[in-house]
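To whoever picks this up:

The parser on our side crashed when reading a file containing two proteins. I've narrowed it down to the boundary between the first structure block and the second sequence. Both blocks are reproduced below exactly, byte for byte. First block:
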Amino acid sequence: MQSHDTQKILANLKKARGMIDKLTSMVESDEYCVDVASQINATVGLLKSANLTLLESHLACCGPKFLNAKDETTKDAFIKELVRARNVSSK
């Protein structure tokens, strides 16, 4: 993973952690449902952004090695891995 991506991913994960703590407090305090839902969506957005950055970094760092491999099995496995990761992240 590229170091600038690592910093971006960590920042988003730390923000999401803080937001989850806030969400827990909001639910425990019986705050307005739409306000809680809005914060949940913001947290999900941070996690999706971290995931996308991670997958882009993986493609940039590891992609050339695997896609230029002489072994077709290695190439196919990498492609399937990316498709699987993308399918999971889009749910």
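<<boundary where parser fails>>
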Amino acid sequence: MWAIWRCGQTEDTSRVKDLSVGGLFIETRKVCPIDATVELHFLVQDGEIRANATVRYVKVGSGLGLHFETIRSEDRARFAEMVKRLMQTESPVTPTTKILA
């Protein structure tokens, strides 16, 4: 899975390496400061999901660890389905937290 993201003037399209209901890790060589806000856009089979996240850690040359702050209310059901689907199928994205129904 891929995410399109923006942090200030920095933009990129990055592979999502790890995804949970609380956050994700994106592979990128670009760097953003800790605590910076990142705008995320995911294109999934059911449509688009938009979210805001905060940079929690940076692995220089590797990627960014992000914590979800907000997911648009109209996207929450698609987000839950995306995580659930990834947990049920073998995927390059490794979900780390189950959604409790």
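After patching the parser it read the second block fine. The first helix runs from residue 76 to 88. Residues 2-95 form a domain with the Thrombin, subunit H fold (CATH 2.40.10.220).
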